[in-house]
Amino acid sequence: MSGPRTLAAQFAELSGDLLSDPDETVTFERVVQRAVETIPACTMAGIMLRVRRGRVQTVAATHDDVERLDQLQHEHGEGPCLDVAFDRENCIVQQTATDTRYPRWAADALDRGVRAAMAIRLHTETETLGALNLYADRAGAFDQETVDVALIYAAHATEAMRKARLVSGLQAALESRHLIGMAQGVLAVRYGLTYERAFDVLHRFSNDHNVKLRDLARQVIEDRGLPGDRPDDERAGTDQPGGPSIVS
Hints:
alpha+beta, five-stranded antiparallel sheet, about 55% helix, about 250 residues, Arc Repressor Mutant, subunit A, Beta-Lactamase
């Protein structure tokens, strides 16, 4: 990849490709695949994202070895990708054969044909999302020109991932709202409640039983009532009263 005009044109096309699908999983896979195609010397790529409670997770990888190398970083408690995912600066391992910062991980990487590695922080203005992890089968592969291309690529990848996450979050919120509305209707019919009262019942049950409102709504729809309260036709012939005490 050479020449400013050629570079700009290629990244313009790349940006459109990365932003073309709002699905997070598709975006993650597209980011790692295009990384190998776009970044010189890169032969494998993966994305390691931060999740809850200070943990990280590999969400996309071009090869099984990438996932295994991520796992080994967890096992050894060392590695460039792990460091970068937790707010460290971008990290380049120019030669796994001689690296002294991550000796155990570097030895494992070398055994898998990785001669050089680079981890780039994926971040917005307010948070670190994780790391884009790049691997090469040639020592010293990540020279300054390659690093510059990788940094530009990572910026495009971050924006695509941010937008996909936003869309996924909105879709999840809309789905939750729809499920809760349906569950309110079930409770209104089943127990003779108003929609407002039905929501209060759902909210109280959710808090009392430490279950997410969305999950509770889905179960109410499936069970045609609150969990543990069988429908009238299943109670027929028994002396069990109708409706749990929470709706009274």
